[in-house]
Amino acid sequence: MPATRSKAPRTFAVASCLVLTFIAHAEPLRVQPIDRTLAAGRVRGYVAVVDLCNPRVEVVVTSPLPQGSAAEANLIATDAWRTSTGVTLAVNANFFSTLAGGTADIIGLSITDGVLVSPVRTFNGASDPAIVFRNNCLAQIGNIAATGLLDVRDAIAGVGPSTTDSFPGSLVVTDGVNTGATARVDPLNRNPRTAVGLNQAGTQLYIVVIDGRQTNWSIGMTLAELGDFMIERGAHRALNLDGGGSTSFVYQPVAGGPTTVNRPSDGFFRPVANHLGIRVTPAPAVLAPRPIRGVWLRPPSTIAALETQLNLCAQSGVQDLYLETLYWGLSTGRAGVFNARFAFDYLDQAIRAAARYNIRLHAWCESAYWQYTSAGQYLFTANPEFRALNVATGGFGGDGTAGQVFANLANPGVQARMRAYFAELAGYTGLWGIQTDYHRFPLDNNTSDSFTAPWGYEAWARTDFQSLYNVDPITAADTPADTHWTRFLAARRSGISQAANQMHQGINGVNTGIDFSAAMFASAMSNSSQLTKCQDWYTWATNDYVETLIPMAYGSTTSSILVDINLAKTFAAGKRVVAGLAITGTSTHPSVQDQLNAIKSVGIESFVFFDATALSDAAKRFQMYNWTVNTATPQPGDYNVDGYVDSRDRALLNATYTGTPIAVNAGNRKYDLNADSIINAADVTLFSRVFAAFRFGDDGVVDQRDLDALRACFGATAPVVGVQHLYDLDGDGDVDYSDQVLLHGLLTVILSPDLDADRNGRFRIDDLYAQRRTPIDVNRDGTIDALDAATIETNLRAIEPADLLTRP
Prior knowledge:
The protein is α/β, with parallel strands linked by helices. The radius of gyration is 28 Å and the shape is globular.
């Protein structure tokens, strides 16, 4: 049984007076409306996605009544409970039994801050299914027994089997399989629903609330439909909670600001016994993320040739490489979802090679371009229905080049494959971003007809359309003049958009710190040829399907480039806009310097150029580097204005602030990062966060993944004079254990102690002796001191009886 204890806060180590922080690519809590038309009617509600390992996130469950109370809880409406606790998001949780005097007993497990409020309930020896939130920021859904609660901080439960029906319990998704049809409660009828789900890693929480019993608003969901929706969102396991009239959703992202609520079937929020809340610690005022200084590159045939390009990139001030990773249906990485292009894992080696040049590597995927001549043909041989088919011609193809065949990204099978592939990419150690490009239908290969969007009348598409509108699009939407043509076009656009959603969910199910970007044409919703492609990036941005927008502004004049950039800014829905520019291609482009000056004039200083091979031109290299260090706005923390935030900048700060606060003057103002007119320890703390963001990502999270990325580069050096290795944190010229110790001091997620001091794979008394001979940072606090040996001693005492028994 959990003991009473205080909740350990997981917050940034930044003083409260600071006015700067970081934009996270993946927000700790994202809420999206649900609005779908099913064959039976319209369904509405909300889905919230919570990054449980983000240090700004805290899970909150209804507090217990005072000791000695006859009941376990007071009945309180969810909106009132949210107001009383100040949480950001609140939903109802456990089923309950109403008692006298406005009190209730909670059915099944409930834990609040480590305090057991309601015990595990069992039936025929099986525990009710529950979701438990553990102290290491991971969560678990399953039939949790009382013996499995030692490190549980918060928990809520569904219900298991009973004598009233034959359903086994309220798990609607079990290990990726939809089990909703046989789940509790009332699985076959449409009802308001409240449910929670987790990705396979237990790091991502999905909270879903579905309105129901309101014909003109929302008809509700069966539990099978709820299971489908949870799987679509990324849930590996999902749990149905109390629903019906109890279903409630109250979201207030800013204290005192507007509140988003669902529509309870009773017309008001019913008092319930238990609640689940998510509190998001407000971030201080915003410091823009580090700028993107990037280029696109198709991979040279060898890593040695790649390093030649990386060397030119480093000389140009480039810090981001978008390496083509999916092209012609082949993967630049290992063989997995797609066949491999190389006989070795090129992507894995490229990530480490780029880090030597202080360059962050992003996987650039030409998502729909699956075949060129015989390359990629294996994909369509196995699944011919995956091809994009043309309405007017009945054929298939690409953008007018012989041998091209595009995949239909609206096809659910294609979406599933792309989701799996993007999840595969997200598992690469040290990868910074994943980009979807060619995310569209191909150009119309019969431009003499009048079809605005010719792709396509596949059998699966016809079935989907008929389920929505009870008509066959091949006859009811066969020309733009037909009544259903607009609906058919909307369905095609929606399918392409859903592909982006699926890709994003695949990434976030593995690593929410990876930036998901889209290369697209800004005029996608206004230009006739772009309308053909159904690339509705407005929807992608509005619905949080992507995080970064990269409009390909390949104009021949700076004015035409700015038309595209400004259009992207207008419809970006708050997403980051990075200028996609060109220095190679079939048309003439303005100089590198002129293009960069143009985008700066409209407030954009992040860019990606096509392509890296053009940097063999010394003049282009000079223009790019010169603009970065002499024209671009200096980044906070880049004190020597060389485009990097590194150990040299830390040395300058340490030479200025030596422990005694000093007043700001014209000469030292750049060190006053929090703009409070005093240079002190708060500025040092903030510099550490700026430094960490530059080295490990704008999401503000430094965790095991970052440690793995650094350790993968042990022994590496930087080959370009003046450019430090991405993970050379101390600036001594290589990546080694001293850099790891510095990383420990930047951690925002607590890691287990490193007890194996002698590195023999076992933890015994010998590790204490090794620690005294050659000390390491056992407790991972960024300092090697006496506390490290004490940590080993404490842990040895805990295992001493077992250790003695195993000694010879």
